[in-house]
Write a structure and sequence with these properties.
Elements lengths: L2 E4 L4 E5 L6 H4 L6 E6 L3 E3 L4 E6 L5 E5 L5 E5 L12 E3 L6 E2 L4 E5 L1 H7 L5 E5 L4 E5 L4 E3 L4 E7 L13 E7 L8 H10 L6 E6 L2 E4 L3 H6 L7 E7 L3 H13 L25 E2 L1 E4 L2 E8 L14 H19 L7 H11 L2 H12 L4 H17 L4 H4 L2 H16 L13 E4 L4 H9 L4 E4 L7 H9 L3 E3 L13 E5 L4 E3 L4 H24 L13 E6 L2 H9 L5 E5 L13 H14 L5 E4 L27 H6 L1 H14 L5 E5 L5 H18 L7 E5 L2 H5 L1 H7 L2 E4 L1 H9 L17 H16 L3 E4 L10 H7 L3 E4 L4 H8 L4 H12 L4 H11 L1
Parallel strand pairs: 21-22, 22-23, 23-24, 27-28, 27-34, 28-29, 29-30, 30-31, 31-32, 32-33, 33-34
Antiparallel strand pairs: 1-14, 2-3, 2-13, 3-11, 4-10, 5-6, 5-9, 6-7, 7-11, 8-10, 12-14, 15-18, 16-17, 16-18, 19-26, 20-24, 21-25, 25-26
Helix pairs in contact: 3-5, 3-7, 6-7, 6-11, 8-9, 9-11, 12-13, 14-25, 15-16, 16-18, 18-19, 21-23, 24-26, 26-27
EC number: 2.7.3.9
Cofactor: Mg(2+)
Enzyme class: transferase
Length: 820
């Protein structure tokens, strides 16, 4: 069926080649035409269905009668206007007729702020040919301008078989499917051969492509349909559905409201932004404007350019595989982008047309970035920085030339339009004092790195900051989400005093953190660290960790195609032990299931995975894996350091079964000396039965995160009830007290390794309840030790008694604030 298009606006009809944007000019968004408009109303070019009006109202996508999808994109770079100047005249799903108003555009202010008013009109779906009827000529709204016709495809497709599966689910992830969840979906599908498609907003997306998933604009609480075809369709679809429904370990909070770029200086003289990482900084502005590496458009032949691109991608994949710490999730998302089938297909298509690998990769990246930008979703637009980062790294390898990065002076406040993750480390090493970006968001990967490094950072401050002069002294107050571009003497003096007090306090805490932690009355409290890999061990020791109270061994098993073998595990555990320099190391056995599924260890579908086969239940169901892990731990960790901890134990029967397997592993390695074996108290059952557990276990450790959600019947991955998940609730404190009582009855020590252990405010209550070990995040250790050293056991016990008598978590927190 051929559909005739009529001019949606009055103006000058242009071929796409004349659009001053390579994304459209190179037809990365599909074939079509453009109009340089003279009127302010965008009208339907034919009868159609509205698929989506962008949230920023700068574009509309239509489905035509022959199923072609047509994008009308008003102006260039207009998404940055955040909807200003655009008024939608239709809604998603509405049927429209030829000439019906779609968008009203306030041309003058849009023209003043946009790169151009030229409006591309492109067919974004494959399998259609565009025939232009009028071009390089003046057109009036309603004039015939083009015809869209389907074309037969000769592309061969693999025979995936006839098995199909479908399901519909609602997305619980607070921030929708952004880069990290998309990467997890792509990784989870690697063991399967089925073709899997996710349909959102009436548009299909290849579930094996992180770019396609980002472009789909899937948000919190969206209903999506998942379809699969192939011999393992049912297993593939069950894996994806379970992964999404269980939240993928994403932080539980309601989705943040979209933040439009801030205006210029507000009435209070400040530039208001969004806090990405807390802190305060004073310093001169440094405008960070890195340039692009020039690339040749024409290639040296298809075989040479294809081989060069493959080699560059392989090099980056290898480098990303060794990333740990705060950058591990970011590296996983980047790996998925490097392997993305749609990015690679777009680049290869350009190489076949004679383009160089560098030109093809840059064009593919920028085309997909524009597709993501066209969704208008700010959380997704934050991920464009990851695409740019991959573009930069691949081109550097292809050309042998790195883009020159300007070097800021030490103590500078760095200003940029946005910051790429790979730019962060050299800038932090240069000694910058703070960062403020015009765009981006608090969940962008550069923001995560800044928070991990303790570097104050503001985002979404608006383009006005890019006009501030180099060397201009400013005050960046990330705690209050403001940038003062012209602070007076009093403001600088106040900020300097705050900085001095903070710097003095932090330095004193850091210096004292290397000493053992002893309370004011001489009571010894061990302060140790939660770790996920060897890279974190050295940093934890430098921050004062007296050992490791929880090594999460899942880091070896997640985001890969197959389980690590015994030797790989042994080497990993040995590296952590070496990083601790002989200090105690508590290794928790594999805790997967629930919010941590592993694709190559399939679980049966569970209606409530948090109450299913996770932790020790999974390990006892797979004694071969548990025995292998026990042997790797025993062989890798020196006996003087080694302790082992079992997750999600509910009674002594599970502990006894695991000890039998541990004893067999010791015998196989010829180890006669018993190894301390403890359990995590993560369920009300374990807390209530702590005395019987302590009779058999060598130590107990409270997993406060799970204990809290089970005690309060509030899923910590559900934004609707996340506010109720408070480990200081009196019900949780009573369970901790019961566990401490059981541990004391048999002379066992009790630790806490959940999130509450990192909170200095909670330390007095935990110690008063009977806890003698706190396992915290490394960065929290200096401040935690400083607080504990000021306490006495008697005061802590009295405070704990008052907390146990409280009625609500709010009452407990109020009590702590009054006594702080």
């Amino acid at each position: 069926m051929i559909v005739r298009l009529h001019a949606p606006m009055t103006g000058w009809a242009l071929p796409l080649d004349q659009v001053p944007d390579p994304v459209f000019a190179d037809r990365m968004m599909g074939d079509g035409f453009a109009i340089d408009p003279l009127d302010n109303m965008v009208r339907a070019p034919c009868d159609a269905t509205v698929i989506a009006v962008a949230p920023t109202r700068h574009s509309v996508t239509l489905r035509l009668a022959n199923d072609a999808e047509l994008l009308i994109h008003v102006g260039l770079d207009t998404v940055a206007l955040a909807g200003s100047g655009f008024t939608a005249q239709v809604r998603d799903g509405e049927q429209v007729t030829l000439g019906q108003p779609l968008l009203l555009v306030d041309l003058d202010p849009v023209a003043a702020q946009a790169k151009s008013l030229i409006t591309p009109v492109t067919v974004t779906s494959d399998g259609y040919a565009v025939t232009l009827l009028t071009i390089d000529a003046s057109v009036t709204t309603g004039d015939p301008i083009a015809e869209i016709a389907p074309v037969a495809s000769n592309a061969a497709t693999a025979d995936l078989g006839e098995d199909t599966a479908h399901c519909t689910i609602r997305v619980p992830l607070a921030n929708g499917i952004h880069a990290r969840p998309a990467a997890r979906i792509v990784a989870a599908l690697k063991p399967f051969t089925a073709a899997v498609t996710i349909i959102a907003h009436n548009r299909p997306a290849n579930a094996r492509s992180i770019v396609a998933l980002l472009s789909a604009g899937i948000r919190h609480d969206d209903e999506i349909a998942i379809g699969a075809r192939g011999p393992d369709a049912r297993a593939a679809i069950a894996t994806v559905a379970r992964l999404i429904e269980e939240g993928m370990g994403e932080e539980a909070h309601a989705p943040a409201p979209a933040t439009a770029p801030a205006a210029a200086i507000s009435g209070d003289g400040l530039i208001h932004a969004v806090r990405a990482a807390p802190g305060l900084a004073i310093g001169p502005i440094f405008q960070f404007r890195p340039g692009d590496v020039s690339v040749s458009e024409q290639g040296a032949g298809i075989p040479a350019e294809t081989a060069a691109l493959d080699a560059a991608r392989t090099t980056l994949l290898t480098a990303a595989g060794g990333t740990a710490g705060a950058g591990a999730d970011i590296a996983a998302a980047h790996r998925a982008l490097i392997e993305d089938p749609e990015l690679l297909s777009a680049a290869q298509a350009l190489i076949v047309r004679g383009k160089s690998a560098a030109f093809a990769w840059r064009s593919a990246i920028r085309g997909h970035a524009e597709a993501i930008r066209a969704t208008g979703d700010r959380l997704l637009i934050e991920r464009i920085a990851d695409l740019k980062d991959i573009e930069r790294q691949v081109i550097a390898l292809l050309t042998g030339t790195e883009a020159t990065l300007p070097t800021p002076p030490k103590g500078a406040i760095l200003i940029a339009d946005e910051l790429l993750p790979s730019h962060f480390s050299p800038l932090a090493e240069a000694g910058i004092a703070g960062i403020c970006t015009a765009f981006g968001g608090p969940t962008a990967h550069a923001s995560i790195l800044a928070a991990s490094a303790g570097l104050p950072m503001l985002v979404a401050a608006g383009p006005a900051i890019l006009e501030l002069g180099d060397g201009q002294r400013v005050v960046l107050d990330a705690d209050r989400a403001t940038l003062d571009p012209a602070p007076d003497t009093a403001t600088i003096d106040t900020a300097t005093a705050r900085l001095t007090e903070r710097t003095t306090r932090v330095a004193a805490e850091a210096a004292a953190a290397l000493d053992l932690c002893v309370m004011a009355d001489g009571t010894r409290i061990e302060i140790v660290a939660n770790l996920a890999n060897a890279a974190e061990a050295g940093r934890a020791v430098a921050l004062g960790a007296e050992g490791c109270g929880l090594l999460r061994t899942e880091f070896l098993f997640l985001d890969r195609d197959s389980a690590p073998d015994e030797e790989e595990q042994r080497m990993a555990y040995a590296a952590v032990a070496a990083g601790l320099g002989g200090r105690p190391l508590i290794v928790r056995t594999l805790d997967i299931g629930g919010d941590k599924p592993v694709a190559y260890l399939p679980f049966p579908r569970e209606d409530n995975p948090a109450l299913g086969a996770r932790g020790i239940r999974f390990s006892l169901a797979r004694p071969d894996l548990l025995a292998q892990q026990f042997r790797a731990i025993l062989a890798g960790v020196p006996a003087a350091q080694c302790r082992i901890m079992l997750p999600m134990v509910i009674d002594a029967g599970e502990l006894a079964a695991a000890r039998v397997i541990l004893d067999e592993a010791r015998a196989a390695l010829g180890i006669d000396t018993p190894v301390p074996l403890g359990v995590m108290v993560e369920t009300p059952a374990a807390a209530m039965l702590a005395a019987s557990l302590a009779r058999e276990a060598d130590f107990l450790s409270i997993g406060s995160n799970d204990l809290t959600q089970y005690a309060l019947a509030a899923d910590r991955g559900n934004p609707a009830v996340a506010a109720k998940v408070d480990a200081l609730h009196p019900a949780v404190l009573h369970l901790i007290a019961r566990a401490a009582e059981g541990a004391r009855a048999h002379g066992r020590w009790l630790g806490v390794c959940g999130g509450i252990a990192s909170d200095p405010l909670a330390a007095p209550i935990l110690i008063g309840l009977g806890v003698t070990e706190l396992s915290a995040t490394p960065a929290a250790i200096p401040a935690l030790k400083a607080v504990v050293r000021q306490l006495t056991l008697g005061d802590c016990e009295a405070l704990a008694e008052r907390a146990l008598a409280a009625a609500t978590a709010a009452d407990v927190r109020s009590l702590l604030q009054r006594t702080a």
